[in-house]
Design a protein that fits this description.
The structure holds two protein chains of two kinds. Chain A is mainly alpha-helical. Chain A is built from 17 helices and eight strands. In chain A, 50% of the residues lie in helices and 10% in strands. The longest helix of chain A has 29 residues. In chain B, 21% of the residues lie in helices and 25% in strands. Classes of the chains: A mainly alpha, B alpha/beta.
Chain lengths: 425, 179
Amino acid sequence: MAITNYASQNAGALAQESTWEGSVEELRGLVSERALTGETMLLNLGPHHPSTHGVLRLLLELDGEEIVTCLPDIGYLHTGIEKTIEAKTYEKGVTCTDRMDYLSPMSNNMVFCLAIEKMGELDVPERAQIIRVIGLELTRINSHLVWLGTHAMDLGAMSVFLYCMREREMILEMFEMLSGQRMMTSYIRPGGVWRDITPDFLPALEQFINLFPSRLDDYESLLTDNPLWRDRTEGIGVVEPEDALALGLSGPSLRGSGVNWDIRKAMPYSGYETYDFNVPIGLHGDVYDRFYIRILEMRESLKILRQAMARLTPTGEFRSNNRKFAPPPRAELGRSMEAVIHHFKLWTEGFPLPDEEVYVAIESPRGEIGCYLHGTGGNKPRRVHFKTPSFMHISALGSMSEGYMIADLVGIVGSIDIVLGDSDR
Amino acid sequence: MMQITNALDPVEALKSALPAMVQDVKLFRDETTIVVAPEDIETVARYMRDTPGLLYNYLSDISAVDYYPDYNRPGRFGVCYHLYSMIYNRRIRLKVFLQEDDPKLSTLTVLWPAANWLEREIYDLMGIVFEGHPNMRRIMMPKDWNGHPLRRDYPLGYETVMFSFNFDQINKHKPYAKE
């Protein structure tokens, strides 16, 4: 049965795509008529090019140095993560989400876990929510540091990259203290977090919070008022607010155009409504505004981190007590038969979720990351779909970069902060 | 300057304006789902976007789900449009069910350019064709790829075991090495 279905669907797909030939004809309708006659030049940027932040291929139609059309091409990093999660239980699926946006693993864990918790009506203890906020904001700083370093390096400021990596190392070490892993943390789990914070985490966090503002000042002294930097970024890649909304931009890229939308404020999760922080908004919608918003966001993240640290009590529950969803503490396994059964059931069978659908979105460092989760009534999902900010931002890249110089394109690509693992999944 | 009116209940507003187009309304975990017919999706989405009091002006996501082999639904495929209203700060889901053979739907790129790649992704991975789309090509998979991997009947990498009763059937499609 399955085989015949598969064959018939192949036939349709092949018939549709047989028009693809390796010629410029296949681009008719996508590039201007001048490209077909050879009047303008077609140029491939990428997929192996340092300024494309991964394996992004841009097909450019150039009139001299001016971009007439920009056609982004993705899929080089497609690993079928959504399909893989369909074959795993919900708890195992968390590890797959790390691998999507590898610069902000905790945001991915978080949105997947929030979808599961919403569907299973699972409560998360307050301490777990505070630890989650700490992890999420550290992730935001971590991701913005990599973005700032690479963005500055693309536009010729090499030293910023090295400074950013130095501070990022401190965050990665803190991730290691939390989860045992530097990048693929899988720390946030359905019902809470994987384990409690370790004793050396809070001193490291405090040291980072005290040190980081002066380091941010250092980056700013290199870039913010630097005339070269301003020349390369001001008035480049301007997006009007209406266009930004229609193109589906989100996060700092949307706020750069002056749209005040931060999901942490609009639809708070994990107790963000109780923290005092500001959302920076841009005025001009150009590369510089998007740059400066992220710098300010890092300062706001520090504010949140300080508040969260002050709230953290020495001990408390870091995981839900609902044994049908979250595993019992290790110590209980030695003395409680019930705990052994729950542990066994969770690690072999997992937990069931209803045959219904939910959509949850959170504010990742890049923008709105959404998780559409459809259960089967069993222990595996029927469908998981991630709406990822990088995907939407690359799709907007074409209309954002038209009419600018090819050297500006590098700045525009950097300013929308893309991760190809995030867009291709 | 846009006139800001009080928020309307989306289901009531849609039922009174376009009563024939609302097929079903579901509420699950405080999320409203409005099921509409495939041919009505553009009209309904336009109404949701432009009506004062609703103004679902941001297309968050389009995702598709394959219900194979569960046939207790109005169709094999479901396509979900997640709309968000910046002004009233709320979400809604429009859902369309499509039949197994020849799943087709009109595009929403005329309403939101953001729909362009989201629809291409669904076409590529789920095999649902969006009519009127400016560039209906694969986006994730290579252009010569066979099939649509996110369908539930798509093989998960391993080969089906051959027995005597289905030997010929599987042998016909088995990817043997070529000369």
